[in-house]
Amino acid sequence: MKPELEHLDLFDLLSERHLLLRGITEKMWNDNSDIHISNSEWFIMARIYQKQPTIAEVSKNVDISRQATHKFIKKLESKGLVEVKNVKHNNKEKCLKLTSFGEECFEKNEALKSSLEEKIADHIGAEQVAFLKNLLKSDWGIEAVKHK
């Protein structure tokens, strides 16, 4: 174990690993692509992939301010990754859809993340990775706390 991680609590350990993994995946993408996509943009694209949510729905499901979400959506649209369309029977609401180029980028990034997961599994063991994923997916009994 790295000495700097030794005395961290659960929250800080999760945060440190999350930041490390996000940094690695962002670098992997940027090293293999001409188009830069930030972690926040990937996060928004994940909420849109194979769906057509409204901008309001995406804003509610990401931990980014509504104003920042709109800014990221404009960036994604300018890069040709996202289409913004009117919602039928509602002039105020707009829905989002990944373009075919956006879907292609998203799927390539998923493959990069999968290769990183394989490297981690090679290092710590596939069983450990599966156990960690199941542990993170399980009910921790804290979801209600978030909404209070």
Topology diagram in text:
Blueprint: H1 10-32, H2 39-48, H3 55-61, H4 66-78, E1 82-87, E2 90-98, H5 100-124, H6 126-137, H7 143-146
Antiparallel strand pairs: 1-2
Helix pairs in contact: 5-6
Please give a handful of descriptors for the protein shown.
mainly alpha; globular; 148 residues; two-stranded antiparallel ribbon
Report on this model:
This protein is mainly alpha-helical. 64% of the residues lie in helices and 10% in strands. The chain has helices at residues 10-32, 39-48, 55-61, 66-78, 100-124, 126-137, 143-146; strands at 82-87, 90-98. Strands 1-2 form a two-stranded antiparallel sheet. The N and C termini lie far apart (36 Å).
Name the structural class: mainly alpha
Secondary-structure element string = HHHHEEHHH
The counted number of beta strands is 2
Give the biggest sheet.
Answer: 2 strands, antiparallel
Helical coverage, percent range: 55-70%
Give the quaternary arrangement of the chains. single chain
Strand order of the largest sheet: 1-2
Number of helical segments? 7
Question: How much is the average pLDDT?
Answer: 91
**What Rg is obtained from the alpha carbons, in whole angstroms?**
18 Å
Instruction: Measure the end-to-end span.
Output: 36 Å
- Percent strand equals 5-15%
Detail the poorly predicted runs: none
Label the overall shape.
globular
In short:
The protein is mainly α. It has helices at 10-32, 39-48, 55-61, 66-78, 100-124, 126-137, 143-146; strands at residues 82-87, 90-98. The protein has a two-stranded antiparallel sheet with strand order 1-2.
